[in-house]
Structures are given as structure tokens and as C-alpha cells.
Known about the structure:
Blueprint: E1 2-5, H1 9-20, E2 25-28, H2 32-39, H3 50-57, E3 61-64, E4 75-78, E5 83-84, E6 90-91, H4 93-102, E7 111-114, H5 122-131, E8 140-144, H6 153-158, E9 163-167, H7 176-185, E10 189-193, H8 194-225, H9 229-237, H10 258-273, H11 278-291, H12 293-301, E11 310-314, H13 329-335, E12 341-345, E13 359-361, H14 365-369, E14 374-377, H15 382-385, H16 389-395, E15 400-402, H17 410-415, E16 419-421
Parallel strand pairs: 1-2, 1-4, 2-3, 4-7, 7-8, 9-10, 11-12, 11-14, 12-13, 14-15, 15-16
Antiparallel strand pairs: 5-6, 8-9
Helix pairs in contact: 1-3, 8-10, 8-11
Amino acid sequence: MIGFVGLSHLGLNYSLATAAKGFDVVAYDPDAALATRCTTGNFPIEEPGFKELFAANRGRLRYTSDAALLAQCDLVFYALDIRTNDRNESDTGPLTKLIHDTVPVLAAGTTVVLLSQVSPGYTRQLVADLTKRPEVKARTFYYQVETLIFGAAVQRAMEPERYIVGSADPTAPVPARFAAWHAAFQCPVLVMRYESAELAKIAINFFLVSSVSTTNTLAEVCEAIGADWNEIAPALRLDKRIGPHAYLKPGLGIAGGNLERDLVTVRSLAARHGTDDRVVAAWQANSVYRRDWALRCVHQKLLGRVRDPLLAVWGIAYKQDTHSVKNSPSVELLRALPGVRILAHDPAAQLPDTGCGHVTVVPGPLDALEGADALLVMTPWKVYAGITAADIKARLKGRLVIDPNAVLDEKGCRAAGLDYHRLGC
């Protein structure tokens, strides 16, 4: 039996993937109402393929709020999402409490794996604190880098690129049960010291951030000189030093939560240890600047020229296939236009409680267009890509279409006489 502690986005996806690989799973959360919801298939998350995978494997899953059932497990993962505050700083307090509350019930010899993303140094300190407690029996503790990506969580959990494992002794083989779990997913496994594994996750995100920032910087140059970034990106993908899978799509900065958290974490480490963090500060500044691209565009092209304008905004989530609005460029846009009438639509996300009182959410994307002076496509949902330029023109009062992520048919929009704008051109 394999246990998962924490029925958050991370724990739900990894526990389901583990059941899908043929293991019996106990999935625990202290929230009894949440455990009951999950038992009935009423999950608090939306992910492509999740419900279908659950239907096929529910017989191997037991959701519970009874921590005593974890004693039946010889391998237990702690997989609680780590929340961040408005400064993108991690709050590991709930995770630490959950671990201290439940580790004493685990059987002696249980392999414990911390799957939640934590800052370098957390795991070693946690193990030191736990071993001071006499009621905590002898166990083996590991840290493993999670691979969660909102909107692709099921695919990433089922088909991981690699596993990065932190260990107190990287030279020792991992326990057989943990090794069998790894083998079921058929991917490379890298074992290293705790701190290296914790920092490896941040290192991966840093290289991603560098690609994002570089792409956005050069895409803006394209916009200024008449070049087209979409023509340049294929040349970079053919360079072996960059590669076909490089992140080369212009975007509205670094949204979501994990990347920003890692930048804040390293700046905190730099301040503590006296290392240089100026490149990180530059990435943060560039992200905020590019986040406001659509806002600058609508100011330049419309606001101040039209009396009492009405805007249509498609998308509230920070990206497609998720309901999360953490650091969403769309939400920041909405909050930056408090005196403007706005009709908004999103197939999954809801408006936050603050700063969006002037925004009216409508049931369908076409409803948002009625009488609007401009359309801003802020989240690249597939449903928006299927809407034709003719349908947009028929309902839109004005001609301005701001489509940062090139969701719509650009040629069709221009042919229909719409004033179309996207990133990088």
C-alpha cells in the first residue's frame, strides 16, 4: 500500500497516477469533507484527463481523513501544495504541521518522501527536528522534485521526464518499495543530496525563466522594427545549443506561482549569503513590464479616443486548462482599468474577490463581444481559437483585437478588417 498525504493539486494527481500504475493507494487529508468529495469523484481541481483516469482506476484509491490508515503503507508521499503570499514567498507552515501530525502514526521502516516543493535546507532541518521526537520511529526520509504543471498535471504525472531524488546518503540504494514505484514510471532517476535536489527544481525553473525573459525582450524588438518573432524562433530551434523544445513563445511575463516563488527564494538566499542576484531582479522587472503589454496596447489604440469604452476580455486564468488566477496577467489588466466597463469570460476560472467589481462575467465568449469597442484575448483557451473572425466582427462594435498569444486566426482577422495585434510582431 502506498500513501499520499495532502489532497491538493499535487497530491490528487500523483495519487491517481500511482493507482493508474497498478498500486493500491491510501490518499489522506485531515479535511473530512474534502476526502468525502474526492471519494464521490467531486474533485476541487480541473485537469484534462483527470476524471477519465479516476473512473478507470477508482477501485485502487481510498480517500480518507483517518490518519491511522497510513500505518498500512510502507511508502508515504507528502504532497501538499505550497501556497505563496502576495510577495511570492512560500508558506511551508501547513506542510510542516501536517508532517509532524502524521509521521508518528506511520509504521517503523516506512519510507517517507517529501514531494512538496520546499526551499533548500528544508528537508534536512525537518528530518533533524523529527528525529528529536521520541514517538517518531526509525524511518528513511527522501525529497523528490515534483513535476506538476497546471493544465498538464495528469500527463506530467503519468509520463515524467525524470525523477530527481534527494537523500541523506546519495551513495546508498533507495529502498526496494521506492525503487519499484520509480520503475513503474520508466524514467531516469537521479539521486543526490537533499540540498542539491531542492535546488535542482529551482535551477530548472531558472533556465525556463531565462528563456521566457530573453524571448520577451527580443519579441518587443521585433514589434519595434517590423520583424516577426515567429519567423525567428524556428532558426533557434535548429541550433543544437538551444534545441527543438526550448521555450521560445512570447508571453505576458512569468505568471502562475512556482516560477515567481523560485525567483523570490533565490533572492532571499542571495541576501542571506551575500551572492549576486542582479540577473534575477532583472528577470522580475522584465516579467512585470511584459505582463502589462496588453494594457499598454489598449491605452495606445483605444482608451482616450473612445468615450465610455466597453471592453471584451476572454480569459481570466493565468493560462489555459486551469482555474488558477495566481499572478494572472488578465486579472492584473482588469485591476488596472477600474473605471472601464468590461465584459469577461473564462470557461473555468472565477474573478478574484478584490479589485474586479467593475467587471461583469458573462456565460459565453460571444456574449462578451456585444457592443464592445475592443476584444482582448488574455488566456489562450482552445475554445477561443475555434471562434471565427466573422463571428467576432459581427458582434464587436469596434475593430481592435488584442491577442497576445496569437490564439485567433491572424490572417482571418486582418482579412475581416479587424485591427489585430499580437506579441512579437
